[in-house]
TrEMBL record:
Catalytic activity of the protein: citrate = D-threo-isocitrate
Keyword Transcription regulation: no
UniProt xrefs under InterPro entries: AcnA_IRP_Swivel, Acnase/IPM_dHydase_lsu_aba_1/3, Acoase/IPM_deHydtase_lsu_aba, Aconitase/3IPM_dehydase_swvl, Aconitase/IRP2, Aconitase_4Fe-4S_BS, Aconitase_4Fe-4S_dom, AconitaseA/IPMdHydase_ssu_swvl
Biological process, per Gene Ontology: tricarboxylic acid cycle
NCBIfam families cross-referenced by the UniProt entry: aconitase_1, PRK09277.1, PRK12881.1
Domain of life: Bacteria
Name of this protein: Aconitate hydratase
Key words, A-Z: 4Fe-4S, Iron, Iron-sulfur, Lyase, Metal-binding
């Protein structure tokens, strides 16, 4: 995919024009590039930089225009030191942007609203136009309403189009309105696998003949999966992605780079999923938030690209900005196997060799801030859960771990249940016996593993052996297979394995991010009722990357991440209290006990089928249909035309309010926060799922009540994720997760805390929903703040977690630490992120939620400045606490002064005309 703009700034002579050098591909094609080896002649340090930093350096060098990107930026990055203080910001201009539809629709809505503003001010609406290619992959909208039948895929897609017709019409308008905006329609696969298999082209060639590496940002935190093929890119919120689309660099602090040296080889019976769960556990303990992780060593070189992509995908779970794998022969083989043209592959290889970037670095070859080491032979079969992806459990310990957590207090990650209740039977109205620990959802889903034919073929082989042994899956378990792309179905069919998966209930139910994003669909009514009435702790087992509370299903409390073959195994076993290493999965038709070891496929068996998975012709034929044959359901969607969107009456799409009252000049100064009330006191690990749920909408919630009031019945609610184009729904959904705990509310007699989006309205302490309290505070002109603990905002790069916070009138979030993307999103929406210093916390300060809060910023805002938090208690006592302002860079200061990144960019675009 060629760039739509010149690769080199043309407004003036390029400051580094002498570093533009020619190179040739194997077939003699002449191209040019900005040479890092030439830059290294003056800055010898360049040759020792981590590969990922050199790719970022190339973009800074090539895009140097003396204005947004200056020679000083080039010199600063060229002279990066592994353990220096991180105070310098990098302006990174990416080659393209990738969106998924949950985040892409609100982003498109913001662009459409910007065009409304331009038109209202008498300017050409086309002034608002993406300056880099943008691809939106529709993958988050399909739900598992139907499962366990050959008709499941067709039925689920038809329901998807019925539910989302308004959103899809809006996307089609965007396709015709914006020149550089493309859509991959529903039914082709998960955005990250489509990106890996199809959208990523290796290198781009500008109109001026300059070749440059593929780089991107995406509006999904798992954009990092693309790091598996040597592409620098990561997830950002839609807010940052919008700015990147409109020509703004992605600004970030110069990072630490952690080298991860892999040695040895995986043992027999150990999967790539087991490896990634181990890596996730290790790196989360290493505290790599905001850092690049770069893999090196002989063990890394031995990993196939799907295994690398599986590890790269989980970077958000271990907290890193990226999990990067350099380009080597394995990358070239993957490009050939996935149908890239020989011309593209030649340019790809020639470019990376000319830059000195080809090959996996050996241990000690490059400078890293620190190094982590793992011997692959020490990895063991594992799962992770029941509430966080970094909580790895060895397979043989899952049963005992679940039993221990069942009775453990919630403060210790437990379920706070009486131990004697664990073995009891509870019967539904349809006479289905239910138990604590029962597996009710078993899903082969999510980009983490559906990029990896090794584990999917292993699942198929295990299913074949299970069927042949006479094992079955109980019919009440909601089984589903949601491949990352159509190619998966093709190779499972060619390998003869799909029929066996189907016999166990794992029919293809969708091509998209289903169970992992909260689109598992509902359970049977009587099953839900029995779970709720008896407070059962039932389980989901999925091959995904996220298992946060209430994400998979609001009534399933224990969620475990596992490899696809283990998903099938646990579906057969039916309960997570069964030890799969010692107890039988079930019995054969003739009464023999069948153990997991009896049906687990060998590496040799898996490898014998791998040739089915890498067929360039199949990949080319599949992705040619994106344009030529997207399907009748998509083709039949009708949309409006024109350059300015006319907003219809809709509960899915509404003109966003972020530009209401827009002025072409920003406010003169940013004011302190005075007399704020506390909206919530939260503990550690508050995720973006807690702040802005993606899954089901409860009829009793503020969002549910809003939809009912507008004539929409609960059966048609769809999900929060699908309604992200409508601010009235989403602001009501903010902090509405059924499992969130506001610690302002008093503890119950048993020490547990009330769950759900509630607060105490001050003064007086009236119990209200957070939304209702926010509306009262706004009406009274009272600002509000949130207090949190460690890792505030962990999880998906959900822009609505920041947008909803802003629309509720919350002026600041004060926490022990922030997840990288959410901190940036808060800044992007004009919300102050403030970080406690030293050992301070809201608990150590004795806050109850009744206090008044002032935030004194000073006359001018400086990045990462120390500012004053003033606490006024009910008795009139006043305490002052220094906190760190987490507006990290000078450009973020500008964003905040403009009220956020969107008005900042809009003012720039309108002023340019």
């Amino acid at each position: 995919m060629a760039a739509t703009k010149p690769a080199v700034p043309t407004s003036a002579a390029h400051p580094f024009a002498t570093l533009r050098k020619p190179f040739q591909t194997a077939s003699g094609r002449s191209l040019s590039f900005f040479s890092l080896p030439e830059l290294a002649c003056k800055h010898a340090n360049v040759n020792k930089l981590p590969v990922s930093l050199r790719i970022v350096l190339e973009a800074v060098l090539r895009q140097c225009d003396g204005q947004k990107v200056t020679p000083e930026h080039v010199f600063q990055l060229a002279n990066w030191q592994p353990n220096a203080a991180r105070v310098e910001e990098i302006p990174f201009v990416v080659a393209r942007v990738v969106l998924q539809d949950f985040t892409g629709v609100p982003l498109l809505a913001d662009l459409a609203a910007m065009r409304n503003v331009a038109a209202d001010q008498g300017q050409d609406p086309k002034r608002i136009e993406p300056l880099v290619p943008v691809d939106l992959v529709v993958d988050h909208s399909v739900m598992i309403d139907h499962y366990g039948s050959p008709q499941a895929l067709d039925l689920n897609m038809r329901i998807e189009f019925e539910r989302n017709a308004e959103r899809y019409r809006f996307m089609k308008w965007g396709m015709q309105a914006f020149d550089t905006f493309r859509v991959v329609p529903p039914g082709f696969g998960i955005v990250h696998q489509v990106n890996l298999e199809y959208l990523a082209r290796g290198v781009h060639v500008g109109a001026d003949g300059v070749a440059y590496p593929d780089t991107l940002v995406g509006t999904d935190s798992h954009t990092t999966m693309i790091n598996g093929i040597g592409v620098v890119g990561w997830g950002v919120g839609g807010i940052e992605a919008e700015a990147a689309m409109l020509g703004q660099p992605v600004y970030f602090l110069t990072p630490d780079v952690v080298g991860f040296e892999l040695t040895g080889q995986l043992r027999e019976g150990v999967t790539a999923t087991d490896l990634v769960l181990t890596v996730t556990e290790m790196l989360r303990k290493e505290k790599v938030v905001g850092k690049f992780v770069e893999f090196c060593g002989e063990g890394t070189a031995s990993l196939a690209i799907p295994d690398r992509a599986t590890i790269a995908n989980m970077a958000p779970e271990y907290g890193a900005t990226m999990g990067f794998f350099p380009v080597d022969e394995q990358t070239l083989a993957y490009f050939r196997g996935t149908g890239r043209t020989e011309e593209e592959i030649e340019a790809f290889e020639a470019y990376f060799r000319a830059q000195g970037l080809f090959g996996i670095p050996k241990a000690g070859e490059l400078h890293y801030s620190s190094t982590v080491r793992l011997d692959l032979s020490t990895v063991t079969p594992s799962v992770a859960g029941p509430k966080r992806p970094q909580d790895r459990i060895e397979l043989g310990q899952l049963a005992s771990t679940f039993q221990a957590l069942y009775a453990r207090p919630t403060a210790e990650n437990g379920f706070n249940q009486p131990a004697e209740k664990l073995g009891q039977t509870f019967t539904t109205t349809s006479d289905l016996p239910l138990h604590n620990g029962d597996v009710l959802i078993a899903a082969i889903t999510s980009c983490t593993n559906t990029s990896n034919p090794g584990v999917l073929l292993a699942a198929g082989l295990l299913a074949k052996k299970a069927v042949e042994a006479g094992l079955k899956v109980p019919q009440h378990i909601k089984t589903s297979l949601a491949p990352g792309s159509r190619i998966v179905t093709e190779y499972l069919t060619k390998a003869g394995l799909l029929p066996y998966l189907e016999q166990l209930g794992f029919h293809v139910a969708a091509y998209g991010c289903t169970t992992c994003i909260g689109n598992a669909g509902d359970l049977a009514t009587d099953v839900n009722a029995t779970i709720v009435e008896n407070d059962l702790v039932c389980a989901a087992v999925l091959s995904g990357n996220r298992n946060f509370e209430a994400r998979i299903h609001p009534n399933i409390k224990a969620n475990f991440l596992a490899s696809p073959p283990l998903v099938v195994a646990y579906a057969i076993a039916g309960n997570v209290t069964r030890d799969l290493l010692t107890e039988p999965l079930g019995q054969s038709d003739d009464g023999r006990a069948i153990h997991l070891r009896d049906i687990w496929p060998s590496s040799e068996e898996v490898n014998a089928l791998m040739h089915h998975a890498m067929n360039g012709d199949a990949f080319r034929a599949n992705y040619a249909q994106v344009r030529s044959n997207p399907g009748a359901l998509w083709s039949d969607i009708e949309s409006s035309s024109g350059q300015v969107y006319t907003w219809p009456e809709s509960s899915y799409i509404a003109r966003p309010p972020f530009f209401d009252g827009f002025q072409t000049t920003p406010p003169e100064r940013v004011h302190d926060v005075q007399g704020a009330r506390i909206m919530a006191l939260f503990g550690d690990s508050i995720t973006t799922d807690h702040i802005s749920p993606a899954g089901s909408i409860k009829p009793s919630s503020p969002a549910g009540q809003y939809l009912v009031a507008h004539g929409i019945q609960p059966v048609d609610f769809n999900s929060y994720g699908s309604r992200r184009g409508h601010h009235e729904v989403m602001m009501r959904g903010t902090f509405a997760n059924v499992r969130i705990k506001n610690l302002m509310l008093p503890a119950r007699d048993d020490g547990s805390r009330e769950e759900g989006g509630w607060t105490l309205f001050q003064p007086g302490g009236e119990r209200l929903t957070i939304y209702d309290a926010a509306m009262r505070y706004i009406a009274a002109g009272t600002p509000t703040v949130i207090f949190g603990g460690e890792e505030y905002g962990t999880g998906s790069s959900r822009d609505w977690a920041a947008k909803g916070t802003q629309l509720l009138g919350i002026k600041a979030v004060i926490a022990r630490s922030f997840e990288r993307i959410h901190r940036a999103n808060l800044v992007g929406m004009g919300v102050l992120p403030l970080q406690f210093m030293g050992k301070d916390s809201w608990q150590s300060l004795g806050l109850t939620g009744s206090e008044r809060i002032d935030i004194e910023l000073g006359a001018t805002i400086e990045p990462q400045a120390e500012v004053t938090l003033r606490i006024t208690r009910d008795n009139g006592q006043t305490d002052t606490v220094p906190v760190r302002l987490r507006i990290d860079t000078p450009i973020e200061v500008s964003y905040h002064q403009h009220g956020g990144i969107l008005p900042y960019v809009l003012r720039q675009l309108l002023a340019a005309g």
